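Marked as duplicate of an earlier ticket. Keeping the data here for the record.
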Amino acid sequence: MAKIKMKKKSTSTDMTAMCDVAFLLLTFFILTATAKVPEALPVDMPSSVAQTKLPDTDLAIITIGKGADGKSKVFFDIKGREIRKRTLEGMGAKYGVTFSEDDKTKFALMDDFGVPLANLKQIIDMKAADRTKANQPGVPLDSLDNQLKDWLLISRRASIDIDNKELQIAIKGDAKEEYPQIKRIMDILQDQKINSFNLVTGMRGKDF
């Protein structure tokens, strides 16, 4: 009996549609992604398993760490553009420093900073990449010139005036930072009756 020969079919698969989808997804992620800006004062945060997320607005972050020169420094940041503008206006009025509308707009888009108010305009005029490279000495917080106290006080007032909310406070400290420097920050907070604040930590896996 004669054998019936089966017609061979091509086993190749057209991958054109799959490639199109892959390139569309790649293009989408590239266009929507934002580059991570290097921190002006990088810190090695202590680890914890807490997963509470900090708010994007109505938040002040105090960063404590050591700069490239090995000296302990304090940087300050405010989340919320309008609050940043209002705070800069208040600080300028208190210390007799004039900031233009362009300065306020740029300041509202900045991240943390660590200079005395008199030198802040120089940092504002820099590009973001140059700010991270600049040798910022830190926000003054000694007994003769405690500008950190005023930044906190004026930003808290601005938050209430604009959003009718109490400004939340977070401390982002280096795990190796000495305790006296942290205590100085906590004393400033307690002087303003701030007894509740957040400690920013890095994530670590749970121990089983």
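See parent ticket for discussion. The chain has a mean pLDDT of 83.
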